[in-house]
Structure formats: structure tokens, C-alpha cells
């Protein structure tokens, strides 16, 4: 097997194991929310006056995709919309109490994930970590470009 095929196989294994760990460690009330929905909740909780345009930019998704996610989150009672006094045209979003619980749980899970995986990374030497970091930086740039290309087509 070529090195590139082996790497793709290893990435597939990694994604599957991360997905399994996520499912095994997730709290019951997170079930029923997709990856994009949870990350949309996360950005709504972090941004000042979040709107579709800001969320689209942060999540690297089209405005129409964000609008669909927003509709689902409103229907599930995780977010609500509002308008500012000085701009009655623009619609903004904020977390409901339920959305705040989801936001907090998401951050709690991220911290637990970091603590869990740091135990592994601490065992690696600096040279290996630098090599992996360099590779992942390049690969992420490649993936970001692919996302931009796909968003541009829509």
C-alpha cells in the first residue's frame, strides 16, 4: 500500500474513533443535534449580535445553509431571534436557556477532549509534534481551500 493510501486509511480510522468517542461521551440532551447545529450554537454564544452573515463566515458555510440550521435551532427551542433598536431590518440570534445548556455542555466536552488527548501528546517528543503540526497546518489550509471552492459554486 502506498504511503498516501495508508495515510488516508489512518485518517479514516481516526475520524471513526473520534466519532465513536464523541458518541460514547456525549450527554443525552446533545443527541438530536448535528455537528453544524452545535457549532452554530457555539458561535451564537460567542459573537456579539450574531446574524446569518457572521455565522456563515465563522462556520465557512453558505448563508442558505446557515438559514436552514437556524430554522432547525429555532424549532428545537435552542435559539431565538431579535432585532436591534437602531437596525430594524437585520435579524440577530441569541441562545435560549436550552441553548445556553447546549453551549456549556459543548465547551465542557471540548475541555474533556483536550485533557484526554493531551495525555497522549505529552508522551511525544518535540520533533514529532512539530512534524505533525506542520503537516496538519498544511492539510487544514488545503481543506479550507476546498471548502471555499465548494461554497463559491453554491
Structure summary:
This is MarR family transcriptional regulator. The chain is built from 6 helices and 2 strands, in the order ααααββαα.
CATH class of the largest domain: Mainly Alpha
Overall number of structural domains = 2
Largest beta sheet: what is the strand line-up? 1-2
Q: What are the secondary-structure elements, in order, as H or E?
A: HHHHEEHH
Compute the separation of the termini in Å. 36 Å
Going by CATH, the homologous superfamily of the largest domain would be: Winged helix-like DNA-binding domain superfamily/Winged helix DNA-binding domain
- The class by helix and strand makeup works out as mainly alpha
Helix fraction bin: over 70%
Note the beta-strand portion: 5-15%
- Return the CATH architecture of the largest domain: Orthogonal Bundle
- Supply the number of helical segments: 6
CATH domain fold name of the largest domain: Arc Repressor Mutant, subunit A
- Give start-end ranges of low-pLDDT stretches: none
**Morphology call:** globular
Largest sheet: 2 strands, antiparallel
Protein name: MarR family transcriptional regulator
Organism: Vallitalea guaymasensis
Keywords: DNA-binding, Transcription, Transcription regulation
Pfam families: MarR (PF01047)
